[in-house]
Amino acid sequence: MEEKKNNANTIYVFIDASNVWNAVKSVKKFIEYKRLKDYFRKNFDASEVEIFYYDAYPKDGTRDYSGDGKHKFFTYLKKGLGFTVRKKELKRISVIGEDGETIIEKGNMDVEITIDALHNITKYDAAILFSGDADFLALVNYIKNSGKKVYIFSSKNNISHELKTGGNGYFDLRDIKEIWSKDLKYRGK
Asked: What digits encode the pLDDT tens for the residues 148-176?
């Protein structure tokens, strides 16, 4: 494993796309991911910023629209911005209830985020977690107990109290004006 550079403030950012989507819907604007590295360099005095992006996508043929746009976005993040992109197909689960069969979809990326945060722990001085899920409190405590800082980025209506108070600081995504860009437009029916 490569050790972090001496005297460098290295930040690793772990973005749970489903959590960010709730903030996007609330603000009604898209995040300009190109601005994120600059935001962390400026506001966290980071000499190096590595960003990991985690998302699950619908299986082909399960929507009345094409998933090509999402895959192009993943390519842009990876090749255009240098992010590490972790993606997987949503798991479709059949549930039989009183009203018949219902299909639910799950695409939780908590394990992938945790593995990357722990695998890279010697490479960063601070971890930034874009999530509001209380399940991450154990990870946050582990990172802090390893002598690292952990900051939580989420939004008011999507953050657990445990996670909000468990890190070294909490930031409401909706209040960070410089990362927001074009207006959110919903897909036509």
From this structure: 999 999 988 888 899 999 999 999 988 89
